[in-house]
Design brief:
The chain has 13 helices and four strands. The chain has helices spanning about 1-25, 35-55, 75, 85, 110-125, 140-145, 155, 160-170, 180-185, 185-195, 240-250, 255-265, 275-280, and strands spanning about 130-140, 195-200, 210-215, 220-225. It has a four-stranded mixed sheet, with helices on one face. A hairpin with a 4-residue loop joins strand 3 (about 210-215) and strand 4 (about 220-225). The radius of gyration is 23 Å and the shape is globular.
């Protein structure tokens, strides 16, 4: 009987997951934060965009008023529309130019806090045991999106400003290894995370943050980050990009192959055959 109940429970969970995966493909749902579906959103969107372009190039037809028609995308998805956002300076400005490379493996609203914590850690050689309290002052959106105080999994921790602060101070980084189930359950991370408090302040912009660290010896350290590393104002350096690539590629490529791929990528504009980059990306 217990086996039957367990099987039935597993089937129900799988069915609920299937419904969720299907639902979020409609446009992306915030409910998916902390699950595998959150990183699935941009990947599926990119895949759908490419599929649409390929189909259109093969004369696959569609309405020519998909965005602005009374029953089109804009009126279906929102009660307010501003079509000038589509047409103003069309062909003169390109949103892709506003894209940047993310140095940290989490939501971008947490990046100013992570940056500030890492800076204070490195400037003062901080250790977790030296810290009595960490106080954060952030835009209200930060707590709305990443206010999870006690994440239980690596995926959930990507939406916790408290976890982000703790790993930034302890490890001096916030890459994939800082957002694993193992790291979330790490005793030192939990102890420091519980010392973090955050205050929402509408006067603080979404791009900035204030970090205050009180040490056990009474000293108070402060850092104001106006624009986090990785932003348009403070882009990652070439060496930063290479290190991020190395951190990500180690899960699928040998080190020497990764270094060769980096070299090929930097010289792609002068390459006789850009296909070499794709071929070098295949795990050996």
């Amino acid at each position: 009987m217990n086996q039957i109940q367990t099987h039935r429970g597993s089937v129900i969970v799988i069915a609920l997951w299937a419904l969720g995966i299907a639902a979020t493909q409609s446009a992306g749902l915030k409910e998916m934060f902390g699950t595998m579906c959150k990183p699935f959103h941009p990947g599926r969107a990119a895949q759908n965009g490419l599929t649409a372009a390929l189909l259109a190039s093969k004369n696959y037809t569609s309405t020519e008023q998909a965005l602005e028609a009374p029953e089109g995308f804009a009126f279906t998805m929102s009660s307010e529309q501003d079509f000038s956002q589509i047409t103003d300076r069309l062909g003169e400005t390109f949103e892709v130019e506003k894209n940047t490379y993310k140095p940290f493996a989490c939501g971008i609203v947490t990046h100013p806090i992570i940056d500030g914590c890492i800076q204070l850690r490195n400037e003062h050689n901080l250790k977790a045991e030296d810290i009595a309290a960490v106080s954060l002052q952030v835009n209200p959106l930060v707590l709305k999106l990443t206010g999870k105080t006690t994440p239980q999994t690596g995926l959930e921790s990507k939406f916790s400003i408290y976890h982000a602060s703790a790993v930034a101070i302890i490890r001096g980084s916030a890459g994939p290894k800082e957002y694993t189930d193992e790291t979330v359950q790490n005793v030192s991370v939990i102890e420091l995370r519980d010392k973090v408090t955050a205050l929402a302040d509408a006067s603080v912009s979404e791009e900035e943050a204030f970090v205050t660290i009180t040490l056990t010896d009474g000293r108070v350290l402060k850092k104001h980050v106006e624009h986090a590393v990785g932003s348009l104002e403070r882009p990652m350096s070439n060496s930063d990009l290479e290190q991020k690539f190395l951190d990500l590629a180690e899960y699928s490529l040998p080190l020497e192959q990764t270094k060769r791929l980096i070299d090929l990528s930097w010289s792609i504009t002068s390459a006789a055959d850009v296909g070499n980059v794709a071929r070098a990306s295949v795990p050996s």
